[in-house]
Amino acid sequence: MMSRIESVRALEILDSRGNPTIRVQLSLDDGVVATASVPSGASTGEHEAVELRDGESRFGGKGVHKAIENVHEVIAPALNGQDPTRQAEIDALLLALDGTPNKAKLGANAILGVSMAVARAAALASRLPLYAYLGGPGATRLPVPMMNIINGGKHADNSVDFQEFMVMPVGAPTFAEALRYGTETFHALARILKKKGYATSVGDEGGFAPNLESNEQACEIIVEAICAAGYEPGRDIALALDPAASSFWTSNGYDLAKSGQGRKTSDEMIALYQGWVEAFPIASIEDGLDENDWSGFARQTAAQGHRIQVVGDDIFVTNPAFIRRGIAEKTANAVLIKLNQIGTLSETMQAIALCREAGWNYVISHRSGETEDTFLADFAVAMGGGQIKTGSACRSERVAKYNRLLEIESELGKAAVFKSPFASNSSSVD
Ligand code: PGA
Ligand code: ZN
User: Fold this and answer.
1) Which residues span the domain enclosing 50?
2) For residue 141, how far is its CA from the centre of ligand 1 (angstroms)?
3) Is 205 a catalytic residue?
4) For residue 235, which phi and psi values (nearest 5 degrees)?
5) Which atom of ligand 1 lies closest to the CA of 204?
6) Cβ(336)–Cβ(311) under 8 Å?
């Protein structure tokens, strides 16, 4: 007997930065109740789907009562009686109800909360764990975590321009071991920072936010931490960067103002990365250039794409139309995937399908504003791309995703696969 959607309710909750966001609770007529909570970014891409905020005095304008009203008054009546396993049809219906190209009418936050809750309800009704429901019996690959252990840019009030310095335990044999490698490195980094007299307070994604002398010092100190934790940089643990360059791009070029390292052109930024790729074991660079710098991205990919993963986040905003352009123009060789940039599960899966067809990598990612929802962990296993970016080894909204991946790995037992996206050919990812 098929289960049907009986009610859809939304609630205003808080995210990890204390800003309001939406939690959707969806009930089926068989007694199943599923919830899903929506994340929120700080260094958002210009073309992201619209996060609907009230703009009134509550919460400094960030309230989400309008989006909630849209769930109750527009979405819920339309979904009543629907079969939750018809995800693509339900997502298409949500798009039709909204009717705008960027989900501005109902709000991508309202739409995504419902889209995720529908999937979770369908998984529960099918008596399958979410990863198995979304990914089928082949969903056995655990992702390599990209753990963001030094935070800068818009995620921290410090002297570092680049937003994220991550460790990727590419040489670990299992997810659990990878998490241990990364966590031990995080603790070793704390000891080193303390010894050198730097602060060990953390930024939005749980990485340390020290006032370093320069951006490159972040790479140096992480390599030191990898060694101190007993691992070999490059072989056991590689570095991954997300400069989030849109956040320091100005009409006068890339302005490294926080560190006082001056202004740079696109080509000077590419040259800076080239120097770093030679000096440090960097496997991946995301948003090294501004979201509108398509030609700069293509030049960086031509110069470095054989050697590193060049990931587009703000430039593609998980939007199939932008990813198609990127594939045609060889803009990058990988895409950062964020459900709330595009706003439905189905469109996110279309974005991933495009990556697979092009032989591009894809990284499933959290936002800097997160909740305790672990949907992302199951989604990463379901999609099988072998990479997840979900913060450091502290702050429970980040660790919750890692803990859920530990659970999934343990549940899969001998069937669990853990393989680095770079292991088969360490000098090439494309
Ligand atoms: P955001 O940062 O969630 O603040 O956009 C994450 C990222 O840039 O990858
Ligand atoms: Zn990014």
Assistant:
1) 5-127
2) 24
3) yes
4) -80, -55
5) 4
6) yes
